[in-house]
Design the sequence.
């Protein structure tokens, strides 16, 4: 019986890399390029270009159910803050992305409470 991650459904077998490539190809091009760039940066800085391929598959499976906007926002945050230079790996990036996805609604409500709503439009009568 093969091991299966209860959170994301990842199980290490021969077809995983092909499935991960298919999942990545389903994303829009800007998101796919951002993910590939983050993977390359982590591979270069953290693993000295020797990252195991199953780490990539685990990451792609972990962010499979997340919206493209949240993925792109998380990857941009990871790259802008240069977390890869602090030896943060793909699991850390996946955590950022999942956290952004889970707290999106509460963050919108908090920003609405902090900044308020737009004032009503006042029309001048002629």
Sequence:
């Amino acid at each position: 019986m093969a091991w299966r991650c209860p959170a994301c459904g990842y199980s290490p077998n021969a077809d995983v890399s092909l499935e991960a490539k298919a999942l990545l190809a389903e994303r829009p091009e800007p998101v796919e390029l951002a993910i590939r760039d983050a993977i390359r940066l982590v591979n270069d800085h953290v693993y000295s270009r020797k990252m195991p391929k199953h780490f990539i598959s685990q990451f792609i499976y972990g962010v499979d159910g997340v919206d493209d906007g949240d993925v792109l926002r998380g990857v941009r945050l990871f790259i802008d803050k240069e977390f890869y230079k602090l030896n943060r790996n793909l699991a850390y990036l996946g955590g950022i992305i999942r956290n952004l996805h889970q707290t999106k609604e509460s963050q919108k409500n908090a920003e609405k409470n902090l900044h308020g709503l737009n004032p009503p439009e006042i029309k001048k009568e002629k």
